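Dear colleague,

Following up on Tuesday's group meeting, I ran the structure prediction for the four-component complex that the binding team flagged. I've pasted the input sequences exactly as they went in, so you can double-check that nothing got truncated or mislabelled along the way. The structure tokens for the whole assembly follow below. Feel free to forward this to whoever is handling the docking comparison.

Inputs:
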Amino acid sequence: MPALRQQNRMNIYDISKEANVSTATVSRVLNGNAKVSEKTRTAVLEVIRRHGFQPNAIARGLSLKSMNMVGILAADCKAPFLAQAIHYLEDFLRDRNYSTVLCCTGYNVEDKKKRMEFLLAKNVDAVILVGSGFVDCDDSQNQYIRDVADRIPVILINASMSYPNIYSVACDDRKAVYEATEWLYRTGSENVLFMYNQKSYSGIRKLAGFHEAARTYGKDWNTYSVLCPNEITNVHEIADFIDSVYDTGLKFDAAVTADDNLAAGMVKFGKRHLIPIPEKLRVIGFNNSYITEYCEPELTSIDNRLEDLCRLCVDAISGLLEQNVIPHNEMLSAKIIFRGST
Amino acid sequence: MPALRQQNRMNIYDISKEANVSTATVSRVLNGNAKVSEKTRTAVLEVIRRHGFQPNAIARGLSLKSMNMVGILAADCKAPFLAQAIHYLEDFLRDRNYSTVLCCTGYNVEDKKKRMEFLLAKNVDAVILVGSGFVDCDDSQNQYIRDVADRIPVILINASMSYPNIYSVACDDRKAVYEATEWLYRTGSENVLFMYNQKSYSGIRKLAGFHEAARTYGKDWNTYSVLCPNEITNVHEIADFIDSVYDTGLKFDAAVTADDNLAAGMVKFGKRHLIPIPEKLRVIGFNNSYITEYCEPELTSIDNRLEDLCRLCVDAISGLLEQNVIPHNEMLSAKIIFRGST
DNA sequence: TTGTAGGCGTTATCAC
DNA sequence: GTGATAACGCCTACAA
């Protein structure tokens, strides 16, 4: 399939001819490469300016073995939390002159592998995996990530893996959920429900935090942790799901969720059953995304400091690509943002 | 700044040696290029498989003058509507084997120009501008877009410009707002407020639709159209803004907004003043984004068929890049999705 | 059907 | 300081 693609633009060769210098000199001017007299530099720059010449990035990439591109893999680019992460990452990457190649993977492992291949085929310099969903509990499912790391740096946001060339920046979810749950019990709740939607690295850690807090208060941590199928993303369907849990007879007067969307579902659930929030049901979400503001009452939520995480991530990448040594794992502490739902 | 980038991988040359064929043959096998005997094909494929060889996309790109990449420019990649568009576009582009290079521009024109340059510097094959904000009322501000179109195809989503190599897919906002407003008046509203946040191509058209409907009912269309500064994105600040409008003494019992977020602000405003929705205030948003579901009551909203728009957009791009002739402007009709707020 | 060789537009290593 | 020139890894006439 022969395609139009691009009309023939000027190249470094045309410029060199018109400026009566060699291509080498033009290249030097282009790259601010010290050794070139002020006189020729300005002359060359003038020719470049006159033609609005821009060097061909692909050719440059071939020479340098890099197009200065970083790949971002995210399960669902439109999910608020991930969209926000993508936004921050692109911003920070651009500041450092990296372009962002985006690829949405969906939640299926096989698809993730395929999309990873698709990204790698473009010779990106590094790849960022956003969201804890990328690290599966079944470690054999993660082999493809290690394989990638044998080629280029892999940076995980909100997940972690121990392997050379795999780096991670994450927030301490476990502690965060522990503190949220503990606070609910301490301030009077009888039964706190924990709802999560994936048994990912992060899901498991959040669960552990919940267990710990529940045990501290001598509560039944097992029946009070419920897993909502992660195919369910619509708020109403989440509320439906909670209905089904409620119908089993489980009583709870507070909830901590692994995600704001789940919490939004919980609020809808409360509305349906005329359970006043926060009086009879207190809800704490996770991510502090802008979903929190749309809810009524607004959601208290655990802020996992996404902007800081993204900044650390990009710092790590540029450090790595400039051959610096950087820490393999960084962990930040979350903070709870209180709003109307508690 | 010398960077690590990438370890030396195998190249087509290594493969050719090991398979005892020429690089040409390897290339042919790689590209499914008919003329190669079944025997050598399988032999070459075996060598390729054994080494997990992947051709270098950058070198390939240099030869083909294309890396099969499309740039997407969006003002705010985390805004629900735009995030959704990005998601659809990336999906459809990937289906056709194009990678997506993402770039968030912000709302400032100078920044948009800079980001456009940044994207173009990467030699993308085409660029998609998502959101009506890219076409300014002051047409001289749009010159940079025409300049780009002199190089590569430009496709606008929800905007329009008349120029060679600029294509557009849009939804008929004008008609949509007209119909929504007309419906509100017809079903009993006394004074419908129209709120928008940018004097963009689309903002202007929506406004026109409102004016037309208001005039039809002999209403004062001028004082009832208010422009909310588009720096204000937070729902509460939007509600604050509406407060200030309300304080001027303007009375309204219905509202059509150019965006779901504005409508969400309107709902918050209603809550603050204890104005029951929809009984005393009916609200219709725009975009039918998932913000609609989080509101209480849920938002009636104008669905501008984003998925269809994105599909048309990607169809247009691949058509163009395959040298086909495609229509310059496509326009779809919106539809109103009724929910609790009316 | 297969191989040879030149070209794609830069960068970088040498000489000068 | 500057200019040849050989990479970089792939594609593709053109020959054979």
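Chain B has 13 helices and twelve strands.

Cheers,
M.
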